[in-house]
Amino acid sequence: MDFGEMKAAAESALATAREEEGYSLGLQAFKYGYPAIEMHRSRWEWHFDDTSPNYNGPINQLGHARRATHEDRFVVTPINDAVYSRAFLDLTAEPQVVEVPEIPDRYWTVQLCDFYTNSFAYIGRRLGDGAGSYALVGPGWRGVLPAGIARAITTPTPVISVLARVAILDDDEAAAAALQHRFRTTPLSSWRGEPADAAPHRTPQQYRDFKSGDPLDFYRMLNWCLTENPPPAWDAGALGLFERIGIAPGVDFEPAQLHPATVRGMERAIPKALESLLGEMPFCVPNVNGWLFPDPSRSGNFGTDYHLRLVVAEIGLLANDAREALYIGCFMDENGEPLTGDRAYVLHFDADQLPPVEEFWSVTMYTHPAGFLTESATNRYAIGSLTPGLTFNDDGSVDIYIQPESPGPGRESNWLPTTPPGELFRRILRMYAPHPHILNGTWKPQPIRRAG
Fold first, then answer.
1. Which of 78, 132, 265, 276 would staple 19 via disulfide (CB 3.0–4.6 Å)?
2. Is 24 left (phi over 0), alpha (psi -120 to 50) or beta?
3. Shortest CA distance to 88 belongs to which of 318, 373, 300?
């Protein structure tokens, strides 16, 4: 081999190494950054794209949604036992005040998520909160709060999401809706009766659909999100690696400044990461009797568990802290086979194995992999402890019939319709204000069994 051939071989090997580094770091950047991109997408659709079916109104203003049905797409795996009020708040200019009405007879909560999907604080019944004015203060604000504020909460990021839930009792959605419409968000200056301190928000960079468009748009949006909402200090290690491929807060992503081979690897990484996200990634969460059972100590507050944060962002964006509500999902039956509308199933709880909760529990049915409520002729999407007419067996146990067709007379009160034959589904068991037996793993869910 002459000198020219040796040089060409070395350059080819170096380009291959660069491409593989771009690919590997691109995959890790996706795992790290996808939840923030999903928050960015949601904010854009809720508050800045008035052509979106999910449009909520101006930012910093709560939108009050009806009880979720199979037609709703504003968030994946929506709850059906409560009504939502939702908004993103930009606290850069000044604090926002959340006004909470008196709610004496039912579960309610206001969940606060930072831009990295951590449920960092709550206002709600579990904490002993009541009607009042609660100030949400962005990082770095140095003002003085006036008298009359029930509690002040400092936020980790300048932009956060607010998700209020009010439980529906006895299928009386109207009563829950009347309460939810009394929740308000108000700039602190307006709450004081003064002119606004500054412009209420900044217009974010437009969300770009990197899934079907330019995969490099993912990295462009990620840098913007990192700049707008500085990540926590414990992410410094990951971000130090990502600097090698141009991912960092405070800078624009400029692929022209990277080696072309590195960029090729980064472009390859996005479709591969998306394929993995919809495939094997969710099943890396610990499995308990067929249920994906995340570590309650990290569920909803992820720290550096970027994998769990990624999976939850895809299958349950804005999931609660486990102390407020633990969600566990199931994609398979007792034999490890996918749940499908071709079969009938039974979920059985012994009398002493009903989910131990202070508030309520429910099983909700979703399409898979899309993660939206299943359409059914009965318009029943969930069943649980709040379901009117839920029938218990003589020994106090309960059977829930999960199938596309009616289980027959005497059983329809406990029927949860599934997808039609040939279609997959998944179900999520929600447990609100779970007892320590759930959080420490003493209580375990029962597998879903085939009927007959």
1. 265
2. alpha
3. 318
DSSP string, 133-198: EEEEE-TT----PPTT-SEEEE-SSSEEEEEEEEE--TT-HHHHHHHHTT-EEEEHHHHHTS--SS
Interatomic CA distance for residues 283 and 277, integer angstroms: 10
pLDDT of residue 377: 75
Q: What angle separates helix 3-43 from helix 306-316, to the nearest 10 degrees? A: 50
Largest Cα separation within the chain, whole Å, is 88
Average pLDDT value for residue range 31-39: 98
In DSSP terms, 417 is beta-bridged to 403
Structure token pair of residue 138: 């962005």
- Average per-residue pLDDT for the chain: 92
SS3 content of the chain, % helix, strand, coil (to 5): 30, 25, 50
At residue 6, φ and ψ (nearest 5 deg) are -65, -40
Cα separation of 145 and 167, whole Å? 31
274-289 pLDDT per residue, tens: 998 866 656 667 889 9
Q: How many CB atoms lie within 10 A of CB 133?
A: 18
